[in-house]
Specification:
Structural class: alpha/beta
Helix content: 25-40%
Shape: globular
Largest sheet: 7 strands, mixed
Strand order of the largest sheet: 7-6-15-16-17-14-18
Number of domains: 3
Number of helices: 16
Strand content: 15-25%
């Protein structure tokens, strides 16, 4: 089969590699000048900045792609473990060093609040049970209602109707510890107070298999997967923007894509790793979308966006770890502002990333490479980023300098930033959302956008907006789901002459 994949993000690369390994003729068309999508890379003044994801978990999902092609991950990229996974810092000066050492975790819980040790042990054990059920579904399709019915008893047993925060809170009393063990949904675009408690499995996933980093940055992993794809005979076309998914009016099947320059590329199946809402609303004509209408897509809840400043310093800050979570004065109230009220708050919580702590080559000698990320409302709110971005940036740097990084601003030698406009304009993300559809209970599994279109039987969806969701394990698994579905559908299509 001739298969076209729209977008060279992790989901598109994973799908394309698997489809090529099945023997299909596979071409990826990518709008940007580099593969990666949200995992783009900025390079300036001797510094290398990963634009998007920086946390690698479940490394065996990456290994599987190379094994499938008779290669090994180490032939293409070096993955190294990170310890601590994160430092979680609070405004009272306390710091939780989060890693996979259970004894160390218990000691820190005891130091924060001795009465929470027993609850933490119960919580940690419960996340293993959630993992055993939840992660087993990560590479299974949920496009049929019967598939959902089968797992409902497990979802009820695991209290998946609760949010991650409410699930954690039933075990732990200290407010700081509640934040330590419930913030993870933010890494995949979810609100801890509305994301289904199934995502508590991330605690067990990280504890058992660790948090990893690709030497050279996440962009090195993107390059490695792109190289694997082309090494096995796939074609990758960069700076090639799709204008339309062409659908036959009679058969209602996709026949290829029309590029922005007018060229039509024929295909027997199309896989979109582009933003889900953009794929349907901008690439597929309304007459071909009886189910996935603009109105239906508009009713979905989309994740927050991000403000990210990338900067290089001419000095190092050795007391700052690779991953730092800087909790602000509010937790639930701030998240309510971001996700529900969609207003930019006066306060913030931040993710501070210092990859040069692990890989000094990402910055000049004696220097450090950084980004600082603030979750912000998507463009469905009222913030005017044209007038707000510079002021917001100054507030963040003043905060970092005052509390964590003395003299910071005088040591910044290069800098750039992105805000919700970047996600809308450069990544075609609906509302400038950084993670597409939120991972709430009513937007998970069968209730999440499906990996195959209900309207067009040979249009498949991979990436953050479809099942199973955002984050590297999710989007890589979406690629496997799509490849498996196409592999299963091919014999039937051949028999029917489609």
């Amino acid at each position: 089969m001739r298969i076209l994949v729209i977008g060279a993000g992790f989901g598109g690369l994973a799908a394309a590699i698997r489809l090529r390994a099945q023997g299909h003729d596979v071409t990826i068309v990518e709008k940007l000048d580099k593969p990666g999508g949200r995992a783009y890379v900025f390079e300036q003044d001797g510094y290398t900045f990963d634009a998007g994801p920086t946390i690698i978990t479940a490394p065996w999902l990456i290994d599987d792609l190379y094994t499938l092609c008779g290669r090994t991950t180490a032939d293409y990229v070096q993955l190294v473990p990170i310890d601590p996974y994160y430092n979680v810092r609070f405004e009272d000066g306390s710091v939780f060093h989060y890693n996979g050492n259970m004894d160390a975790l218990v000691q820190q819980v005891r130091a924060f609040n001795p009465e929470d040790v027993e609850g933490f042990l119960k919580f940690s054990a419960s996340t293993e049970r959630i993992f055993d059920t939840g992660f087993g579904l990560i590479d299974k399709p949920f496009h049929k209602f019967g598939e959902m019915v089968k797992v409902v008893p497990d979802l009820v047993r695991l209290q998946s109707h609760k949010s991650v925060a409410s699930y954690v809170n039933q075990f732990i009393q200290d407010e700081r510890l509640r934040q330590v063990f419930s913030f993870h949904p933010l890494l995949i675009g979810g609100n801890p107070f509305t994301s289904t408690s199934i995502y508590a499995l991330i605690h067990h996933l990280e504890k058992k298999w660790g948090v990893w980093f690709a030497m050279g940055g996440t962009g090195a992993l993107v390059k490695a997967l792109a190289a694997l794809f082309t090494d096995i005979g796939g074609e990758l076309r960069l700076e090639t923007e799709v204008e339309e998914i062409v659908v036959d009016d009679r058969t209602r099947r996709a026949t290829g894509v029309r590029l922005a320059g007018g060229e039509v590329l024929p295909a027997d199946a199309v896989v979109s790793n582009g933003d889900l809402a953009f794929t349907y609303m901008k690439l597929v004509a309304p007459r071909h979308r009886r189910v996935n209408t603009d109105a239906r897509l508009a009713r979905k809840d989309y994740s927050m966006s991000l403000f990210v400043s990338y900067f290089g310093t001419d000095r190092q800050y050795p007391d700052i770890a690779h991953h730092e979570i800087l909790m602000g004065p509010r937790y639930k109230g701030l998240l309510h502002d971001i996700f529900d009220r969609k207003v930019l708050s006066d306060d913030f919580s931040l993710y501070l990333h210092r990859p040069s702590a692990t890989d000094p080559s990402l910055a000049p000698p004696g220097c450090d490479c950084w980004y600082v990320l603030s979750p912000v409302p998507h463009l469905g709110g009222t913030t005017d980023w044209a007038t707000t971005a510079a002021v917001y940036r100054d507030r963040i740097f003043a905060y970092l300098e005052e509390r964590y990084m003395p003299g910071l601003r005088q040591h910044i030698v290069t800098e750039r930033h992105i805000d919700p406009r970047y996600f809308r304009q450069s990544l075609n993300a609906h509302l400038g959302s950084a993670f597409s559809v939120q991972p709430t209970l009513l937007q998970s599994a069968w209730m999440r956008p499906h990996n195959v279109s209900e309207d067009i039987p040979n249009l498949y969806l991979a990436g953050a907006g479809t099942h199973p969701g955002a984050g590297l394990p999710g989007v890589i698994s979406s690629g496997k789901i799509v490849a498996d579905m196409i592999g299963a559908a091919e014999p039937a299509a051949a028999r029917s002459g489609a």
